[in-house]
Amino acid sequence: MAIKDREKKLFVSSSRNYAAELKFLLTSLLLLCTIATLFHFIPSSFTISASDLRLCISRISQTPPTPLSPPPSPQASSIIHEKLITNNTIKRFFNPYGSAAYNFITMSAYRGGLNTFAIIGLSSKPLHVYGNPSYECEWIPYTNTNSSLEKIITNGYKILPDWGYGHVYTVVVVNCTFNDTINGENNGGKLMLYASTSGGGDRSFNVTDKMEVLVEQPKLLDHTLFDSKPKFEFLYCGSSLYGNLNPQRVREWIAYHVRLFGPKSHFVIHDAGGVHEEVFEVLKPWIELGYVTLQDIRDEERFDGYYHNQFMVVNDCLHRYKFMAKWMFFFDVDEYIYVPPKSTIKTVVDSLSDYSQFTIEQMAMSSKVCLSHDYGKTYRKWGFEKLVYRDAITGIRRDRKYAVQPRNLYATGVHMSENLDGNTTHKTEGRIKYFHYHGTIAQRRETCKLLVNSTKITYEKTPYVLDTTMRDIAGVIKKFELKMIGSRLQNTRQ
């Protein structure tokens, strides 16, 4: 039996070998047939003679073989880590690579007058905390009208408006004020910024980066801009919008404030990732009517600054629209400015016109407690219509928001400005306030978590009182929206 098994295995092995040889033979025949077929399609003028083949083969045989390259000789490293010096001391060396943060990141630059400019950007926070970077500005005219051929240079005055809140980067506003009018003949030119580290980071190594920050084309500078009447009575500068925002809450907010500020108002919205498709559909009717400007600033997310670089964003807005608005407001899209029924926003700001800035008192509202009367109907109610319980804690300091006359500011913050000409007042109680619905703008589900029928309640250790101020005017706002843009947003969902 063993002999038969061995014979059987030998037969199988031989068969496999013959099969492999047969497969190779058939493949070769197929290749030859293919070549023969292709020759039928080659023009008759194309021939290959035996002499041609011999010439080709001779050339190949005459080509000298390429010698193998010798291995590269080892080189001494240019990096020195340590060496022995006198007194048998080991001197250690430090070898820097790359950079942890950029020296300066420009967002924008604007004129502040005939001889002054503002440059807005980011810079390394450690550089400003532990170093002393400096700035210099140069104006380069397109047509040299300077008879002395001297450079038009001035020192830049840096302002850090984010109160140290920065992360890797901090916000810097550089003011460049020259002794004389710049581009007075309207021939055009460009503004250059020189940002020097001044030994920050590496005390033995100073780096100065040169960058072009603003260009003025010939004949385009309007010298009357700085003294002319502003285009808008009120302009809203919004902070960075990010995350999965609730389109219904945005819808309510914009309709409410367009009615409040009136036809001579404008709203600048900054999209840091929060204006997704549904939110854009809510803003679109107001963009078409000229009330809203939407700016895509998503690229700022590359640079790690405080709260999506909102200090940089509001400073850009301040200087971009500085001469286009009489009053500029700074607050968020979960906050609602309110003035008493017998007042208007114009009468309020007129009564405060002696001040360059005034702050606004906060009314903190619960984002969870609603009236039991709204049971089964909360999903149809607008946010400020159903959230009617106000935080009743007294004796604490609450955040305030603010408004300014922008022509008097050099830089600004989120809750107020510390860099301005003129006075500030905080005594605005009874004249203007704002209702704050914290967290509702990013909530895509029903906000009401507790339905009650009481004028007072303590919820999650916080006392609340019933306040229907905003609820009472919800119907007016809905009618206003319908009048302005029709029913196109009636099917908006949270």
UniProtKB/TrEMBL annotation:
<keyword id="KW-0328">Glycosyltransferase</keyword>
<dbReference type="Pfam" id="PF01697">
    <property type="entry name" value="Glyco_transf_92"/>
</dbReference>
<dbReference type="GO" id="GO:0016020">
    <property type="term" value="C:membrane"/>
</dbReference>
<keyword id="KW-0812">Transmembrane</keyword>
<keyword id="KW-0472">Membrane</keyword>
<dbReference type="InterPro" id="IPR008166">
    <property type="entry name" value="Glyco_transf_92"/>
</dbReference>
<keyword id="KW-0808">Transferase</keyword>
<protein>
    <recommendedName>
        <fullName>Glycosyltransferase family 92 protein</fullName>
        <ecNumber>2.4.1.-</ecNumber>
    </recommendedName>
</protein>
<comment type="similarity">
    <text>Belongs to the glycosyltransferase 92 family.</text>
</comment>
<keyword id="KW-1133">Transmembrane helix</keyword>
<dbReference type="GO" id="GO:0005737">
    <property type="term" value="C:cytoplasm"/>
</dbReference>
<dbReference type="GO" id="GO:0016757">
    <property type="term" value="F:glycosyltransferase activity"/>
</dbReference>
